[in-house]
Design a protein that fits this description.
single chain; mainly alpha; four-stranded mixed β-sheet; 20 helices; 8 strands; 6% strand; binds protoporphyrin IX containing FE; monooxygenase; heme; metal-binding
Length: 547
């Protein structure tokens, strides 16, 4: 009898799964059919899934859907649709999927990036990041960004071969300085290493999400470091087992203890230096003041986690975008030349570009916009959004609890907005053929969309309530570095003929160019001397950031 009941229950459960799958496939946005129970898991490649997503958007429409296991997943392939759903309906589409390992176990739900937007802590976290990084506030970081870019120029001039490490150090030091009011000489410093170790452990879970753990873009050392880790994402009931039976907790909980210790140490360090007046204005010092004034409500440990978020989000994205810029310049020397003509005309050789030159360097700005468009680093648009209510769009049903990928790779290659998307063409951001003094004739602007022009281009930074809070800081890092590199160097491939492949990118959540060689040749003696002179000048200032 027991056996029969069990069989009947199992058969009923299987049938329920098949019917649910069948029904969802009929009413959700079009997409590949897949199979009952596993959905489309087997069809999502482990290698560069964003390319498959783009194909599906082309085949089934700019909003298409798949099922990752039982999780409905929406793939958005154009900016218009991303704005429609993630911005106009942001009250529904600004949440995150549930992250059991990465958020609940590893950090007791303290990492804002993974929190649902309904969480009070998430609101406080966004407020705190806004207060630290809004468009006017980021001007306080101009000083350190300028200093670090001078360090970078000197390193690139002396040791071109290791340029990639220097870009990463630059990006890391900006993040540490803007967050904790101190700079770093190397990415091997404790503060960077520990933060990266902690993020490395959580990233595979963030990417794969609940029950959708099928495509994984991480090297085996990371991916397999937690045996049986995905089971709990698919079967949350495992959390009801007695703690001692929850084998998947062990490594994560020991990492959590380590995280709590070092994040509290960093917070206390800022508190001490703020008290004795030696801490430059930074996100953490601002957050402590805001908390004291009741503007932000967080405990110490919540605050310590909250301020650490720029590590996971701000280093790879900035350094990776700078690599893309170099890759583009090596592939399009005529564009390098045109940008240098503009800089020579506006700045000359006697000084470096400064932040206040930005408005007078439209072509350089267009190069930066096009770099962010041509090969976006967060190819999948960052961490998936999730919906918190049933919805209908263009006649299709989007169930509550869907994961939403605004597939940045496909969005930036939408031919309606960006004709010839594979070409690096900064002119698409210039309003009219304006620059008549250059030798190259500008091509007419290819888009008239109000959100895609020189001054306004926030598309690479995501959507709605989840839009990147570090956007202005990131853009300033890009401007000061790109303009000064163009001012200072002729960029050359290692050997004259070996132009790096513009399509060779890594298979990571933040997909970066595969390593390539680049030579940084000072454009003239004046420039080389100025880089040396600035290097000497800044030594005292660098020390101020080393307390
Ligand atoms: C070129 C540089 C950067 C690019 C291209 C970039 C891009 C993005 C994108 C696409 C998202 C996802 C938004 C969404 O979910 O809709 C994001 C989120 C985020 N970014 Fe950035 N980012 C950059 C630099 C930075 C920097 C420098 C910081 C910090 C100082 C930062 C902090 C964050 C945070 C905390 C989130 C999560 C927001 C949330 O979950 O509510 N980013 N970024």
């Amino acid at each position: 009898m027991l056996l029969q009941t069990t069989i009947a229950l199992a058969a009923g459960y299987i049938l329920w799964g098949v019917l649910r799958w069948f029904r969802l496939r009929q009413i959700m946005p079009p997409g590949p059919l897949g199979l009952p129970w596993i959905g489309n898991r087997h069809q999502v490649p482990a290698f560069k899934p964003w390319k498959k997503f783009e194909e599906w958007n082309r085949e089934y429409g700019s909003i298409s859907s798949i099922l990752l296991g039982s999780t409905p997943t929406i793939i958005i392939g154009t900016a218009q649709y991303a704005w429609e759903l993630l911005e106009k309906r942001s009250e529904i589409y600004s949440s995150r999927p549930r992250f059991i390992m990465a958020s609940e176990i590893l950090s007791e739900n303290r990492r804002g990036l993974m929190l649902p937007n309904s969480s009070e802590l998430w609101k406080q976290w966004r407020k705190m990041l806004h207060n630290g990084f809004h468009i006017r506030k980021v001007q306080v970081y101009h000083g350190i960004q300028s200093l670090e870019s001078k360090v970078l120029l000197k390193q690139l001039m002396n040791d071109s071969k290791n340029y990639d490490g220097y870009l990463k150090r630059f990006a890391a030091s900006i993040v540490v300085a803007a967050t904790y009011g101190r700079r770093v000489d190397s990415v091997d410093e404790w503060v960077v290493r520990e933060n990266i170790a902690s993020i490395d452990l959580s990233l595979p879970f963030i990417l794969s999400g609940p029950k959708s753990a099928h495509f994984c873009l991480f090297p085996p050392a990371i991916t397999f470091s937690l045996p049986g880790k995905y089971l709990v994402e698919s079967w949350p009931w495992l959390l009801k087992l007695p703690r001692s039976f929850q084998w998947f907790r062990k490594q994560a909980e020991s990492r959590k203890k380590q995280d709590e210790h070092f994040l509290m140490h960093l917070l206390n360090d800022v508190r001490t230096r703020t008290k004795n007046g030696s801490c430059p204005d930074c996100l953490t010092s601002q957050a402590l003041v805001d908390r004291d004034q009741g503007k932000v409500e967080m405990s110490d440990i919540q605050l310590a986690y909250a301020v650490s978020s720029p590590f996971s989000a701000g280093i790879d994205t900035t350094a990776g975008t700078l690599s893309v810029f170099l890759l583009a310049m090596l592939n399009y020397p005529e564009i390098t030349k045109r940008a240098q003509e503009e800089i020579d005309r506006v700045i000359g050789n006697d000084r470096m570009p400064e932040f206040h030159d930005k408005d007078r360097l439209p072509y350089v700005q267009a190069v930066i916009n096009e770099t962010l468009r041509w090969r976006p680093i967060p190819v999948l648009g960052g961490t998936a959004h999730a919906s918190i209510a049933d919805d209908e769009f263009n006649g299709s049903f989007i169930p509550k609890g869907s994961s939403i990928y605004a597939n940045m790779y496909g969005i930036m290659r939408d031919t309606d907005l960006f004709p010839d998307p594979n070409l690096f063409r900064p002119d698409r951001f210039l309003p009219t053929p304006s620059d008549t003094t250059t030798t190259t004739k500008p091509i007419t602007n290819s888009t008239t969309h109000p959100r895609i022009n020189l001054k306004e281009f926030d598309l690479p930074f995501g959507f709605g309530r989840r839009i990147c809070p570090g956007m202005h800081l990131g853009l300033n890092s890009l401007f000061i570095t790109v303009s000064r590199i163009l001012w200072a160097f002729d960029l050359k491939p290692a050997q004259e003929a070996a132009i790096p492949d513009p399509d060779a990118f890594t298979n990571h959540f933040n997909s970066k160019p595969m390593p390539f060689e680049c030579q940084f040749v000072p454009r003239n003696e004046k420039v080389a001397n100025l880089i040396e002179a600035e290097w000497d000048n800044i030594q005292g200032h660098l020390d101020e950031w080393h307390h």
